[in-house]
Structure formats: C-alpha cells, structure tokens
C-alpha cells in the first residue's frame, strides 16, 4: 500500500466541509428525537453540577455533606428528568424555541430546587445534619437553568443565521407599518418563513412615541413625511400594513401614496392565533383591488332573513353564475329545508354541486339542469318541489352580445322571468326576488331594456295580486345594483387576464365610470331586501362612490408590480354598442324611499296596469323568433319609452 494520501480525497473532503454544503446539511436536518434532547439536557445538568462542585470546593466548602453522594446525584437527576417530563421542556423544537420554552425551563428548575430544599429540611429533621449545602444547590439550579436556556438560544440563532444568509435568494427589503402586537407577530412569522420572501428593515410608528427605541433589534421610524419618502431614505421596496388601528381611509391613503411611486403594498388580517407563525406568514399577501374598494361590513337582520329561509324550500335560478352561486352559499347558512339550484350551464352547475356536497349542512340540495324559457320544464320543477321562496338570478347580461341578439334577450330575460313569475303565482310561492341591474335605468341598450321590461312585468303582477282580497298571494320584489366586482363579465377578471398576458389593457373610453360592489356584499343585500320586502318594491343598493375605470386599470397594473403606460399599455378602443359613460340607479322621474337599512332604498317607479303591459309583453315574446332586430327593438322602446339607444345601430330608431 502507498503511504501517500489519495489525491482525489482532498477536494472531496474540502467540498464536504464547504460553507454551502454545511448550510445544506443543517437545513435538511430532521427534528431531533425527544430522547436526544433529554440526553443533551442531562449533559448540561452534569456540567452545571461539576462547575458548582468545583466552585465550592475551591472555597473550602462541601457541596454534598452526606456520604451517600451517588444516591444524591441519582435523586438530583431523577427529579430533574421528572420535571422535564411534567413541564414537557423537551417537546418543543429547539430551533423554534420561544419565551414559553424559557418559562417552562424556569418552572422546572424552581420545582427541583423546592423539592431538594424540602428533602434537605427533612434530612436535618431526622438525622440532625443537612445532606447538602443549600447555597450550593441554589447556585447549581441557576447554572442549570442558564445552561439549558443558553444552548437553546445558540441552536436557534445558528439556524436563523444559516437560513437568513442565503446568497442565491434576493429578499425584498420591506418595512412593517405598525408597532403593536399584531406587527410584532407578523415580523416574527416572516423571520421564520421558508423560503423567505422579505427582509424586514424597520417598523413605522405613526404616533411619534418610539423614535429612540428599537424593536426586534430593528429601528422604529417616525412618520414625519409621506411614507414613500421614508421608504426611499432606507432603500425599502415594499410595506406590510399590520397596524390594526388604521381606519379604512388611512389605509387607502397609504396604498395610493405607495402605488404612485411603484412601491409594493402588502396587507394581513388581524392576528388572533399567536402560536401558528407559519399560518401568519402565509396570510401576508399583496393588496388586491377588492381591498381598495372594500366598505364597512354589512349588518344584516339575520332574524328576519332566517324567518324567511329556515326550514323552507328555496329555488335559485341562474345558480351556477357568480351571483347565483354566492346566493346559494349564503342561503345555506340559514338552514333551509331544501334548496333547488337550477341552471342551464351544465359544467358550472356540476362544479357547484361538488362544492355544496362537502359543505356541513342539513339542508337537502337538489340540482336541476333546465332552461327558464321552457315553461313546461319549469312547471315540473314547481310542481315537484313546491318552493316557498324564489331567487331569480338567471339572465343574459353581456351588453354587446344582446345588442347583436335582441331576440335572445327577449326570450330569456323577459320570457324566462315571465314563466317563473307566473308559476310563482300559480303555485303560491311566498316571495319572488328578482335580481336586476342598474342598466335597466334609462336603458341605452337591449340588455338593460329587457331587464327593465322584466321589472315592469313583475311589478305590475304584484299590483294585480294585491287586489285579490283574502287570497294568499306572492310578494314580488326586485333588487337593482351595479357592477359586481369579480363576477363573470366584470372588468376586473378581464384586466387581470390582460395584465398576465403582458397587456395592453383595453378600455372603451377614458371618462367611463362605474359603481362596484363585491359579490358577497351584493348577495347579502339581496337576502336582506328579500326579507324586508312587502311586495312590489324595487330596491336599490348603496353602491358607494363611482370608480373611474381608467383609474381602476392603473391601480391594478401597479398592484401587479408594473408601470402603467410603460410596461403595460392602456389602449382606448371606443364605446361598445349600447354602452353608457356612466350608469344610474334611478330613472329621471323616480324618487327614493329610505328603509331601516342604511344601504338599501326603495325606488318609486311609475307602475303600469297589468292588462295593457301583459298584452305588449306577450306580443313581444311570441314574435321574438320571427321579427327582425329593428322591429323587436321598436317594440321594446314602445314598452320602455325612456329606452334611448347609444353607440348602436338602433339609434336611428329614436329619430323616428
């Protein structure tokens, strides 16, 4: 054999002990078994004992007075292990040790001290002398606690150092807005996040109370100027809003300021689970457009809604749509006896069925594939299930498509509504709630006009049934609101898709504005209006402030981390047929009546006599498949005189 070392072994050993490989090995260490942690704790106890023994030996004093040294040592370690087990000091993961683990160690060592002091007192009582020196025992326990605590701190800091020093990951320099417990919890959670996303560089205090202090070894900055100025001074790239005392208005100001200078903004809900750090870090997310349009939570009259829905059979049409499916989810919360979900779209209906099957509910759920235009099919549904409440959300709603296909708007939006309303009267449904749209107000397109005719029919039917004295009649209620954020056909999903594809974002007009509300908010108000309705009302909802679509687009581009008009272009394509610059919630001749709910009002519309309106609508539906588009629209304009076409070929009909 050669006496020379294998030349290939040196680079292998060097590579094995390299910093990168060492970090990799530490990162992939499994959590140690509990018996190893106990053995490590016992080793610390042994070192603390011998250090105490030598310390007092050097002063000429004996730590152990009794001759039964081995027995004392066995008892000392036995009692320590017992209290380790009692306080479960070994059950925590050392690399994630916290102040709770320190408290457990302190209690265990105090308990050992008390037990051994009692033993020493008993020994002196029965034998006339002490078994050991009380002062030495106290010093031993202090050293034991310090040793047990310090080695946990060293392990924890070692792991944090190696995990935070990854040269191949560029962390986003971020500040945390807030200095309360919520902010501290977020910071701790993000420090332990793996893989890490943020490098927290500072906290921001809006109250100017902690300017000379530090928190988690990070500076606390005072907000004397605008937040972007402060962020620029320390090289921060983003901010996490964690201050639970901020009002909605203050939060929006911060977001607008940061987006103006292309800083990233993150939010996190109020932290309630202080132990689950991983869950907290996962909740830190980029602020969404829904968060910016969010309003105060809606307070519902749950008692009134429950009285209408609980233990009743509820029919929901258009149940597979964005509005219909949310109504299904919210209605289920009120424990109806049975809920019938009806739609003609097979695949979305199937997905909703799979979703509802796993929900914890005692309500029976029946899925019906059906077309509301088919009177016979709808009759079978009413005859079989006998619903007490109907939520009618089925409709064609895309303005350009209905402008090109007015006959389909007639057959579905008007004919389908008429079928359901008539059958509700026939089968004595208690309440019929129709979901309409702000496009029905002073309509400028076929879709809006078709919804307005549906409103008029339902309202006139309600007027007719009211005249039947002593007879149980159906109460017809209409709800009218604007664009629903994130619903099918909304601009938000469209803009999101266009941004993901690199742009451009297409906008029909730079001055176009719309009202927005979230899907859950709209559906909550539908349930509330349905519960308070006495019959014949058209309820309109408080939609908040109108939003300029081009401003919405710019905010969404900035939220996605791009620069508007540079990285993502905004393209003006012109108004679509039938599209308005702005939508209204009231006709020119209408007035509003306040209700007990601050977000719901009643529109006072001029009601048409049932007989004349019924004849016109019957004629419109019967001839929808045979008349030309111009003739259909002319008939619609006769029923709805305020229907004035805009940006459409049908504008010529208004001149005549």
From TrEMBL:
Residues 314-604 form the Polysaccharide biosynthesis protein CapD-like domain. The chain crosses the membrane at residues 35-56, 63-87, 99-119, 131-151. CDD domains: UDP_invert_4-6DH_SDR_e (cd05237). Pfam families: Polysacc_synt_2. It comes from the Bacteria. InterPro entries: NAD(P)-bd_dom_sf (IPR036291), Polysac_CapD-like (IPR003869), Polysaccharide_Synthase-Rel (IPR051203), SAM-dependent_MTases_sf (IPR029063). Keywords: Membrane, Transmembrane, Transmembrane helix. The keyword Repressor does not apply. The keyword Membrane applies. Belongs to the polysaccharide synthase family. This is NDP-sugar epimerase, includes UDP-GlcNAc-inverting 4,6-dehydratase FlaA1 and capsular polysaccharide biosynthesis protein EpsC. The lineage of its organism: Bacteria, Pseudomonadati, Bacteroidota, Flavobacteriia, Flavobacteriales.
